[in-house]
TrEMBL record:
Keyword Membrane attributed: no
Any one GO CC term of the record: cytosol
Name of this protein: Small ribosomal subunit protein bS20
NCBIfam families in the record: S20
Biological role stated in the UniProt entry: Binds directly to 16S ribosomal RNA.
Family per record: Belongs to the bacterial ribosomal protein bS20 family.
GO biological process: translation
Taxonomy, superkingdom: Bacteria
Pfam families linked: Ribosomal_S20p
Keywords, sorted A to Z: Ribonucleoprotein, Ribosomal protein, RNA-binding, rRNA-binding
Entry's Gene Ontology molecular function annotations: small ribosomal subunit rRNA binding; structural constituent of ribosome
Underlying gene: rpsT
SUPFAM superfamilies: Ribosomal protein S20
InterPro entries in alphabetical order: Ribosomal_bS20, Ribosomal_bS20_sf
């Protein structure tokens, strides 16, 4: 455990930030998985799920959870799945 007060505060903040980041990463991954499963099942609402997934990717990239290039690459791959 840290002894210095600023180190204690930093440790507390790191915990809070990590919890927030993990939940946001999980939400983005969930949206992408929903879209991929819908593509495999041949669902009707693919366009809506694609918009949700791409929005989640953009949100994760803007918050610094994933790199901009990764978000762009993943969106491109999802769009290719949509157009198949």
């Amino acid at each position: 455990m840290p002894i210095i007060e600023s180190s204690i505060q930093r440790a507390r903040l790191n915990k809070i930030q990590r919890e927030r980041n993990v939940s946001q990463l999980s939400a983005y991954r969930t949206e992408v998985k929903k879209f991929r499963k819908a593509v495999e099942a041949g669902s009707d609402n693919l366009q809506e799920l694609f918009l949700n997934a791409s929005s989640a990717l953009d949100r994760a990239a803007s918050k610094g959870l994933i790199a901009k290039n990764k978000a762009s690459r993943d969106k491109s791959r999802l769009a290719a799945l949509l157009n198949k």
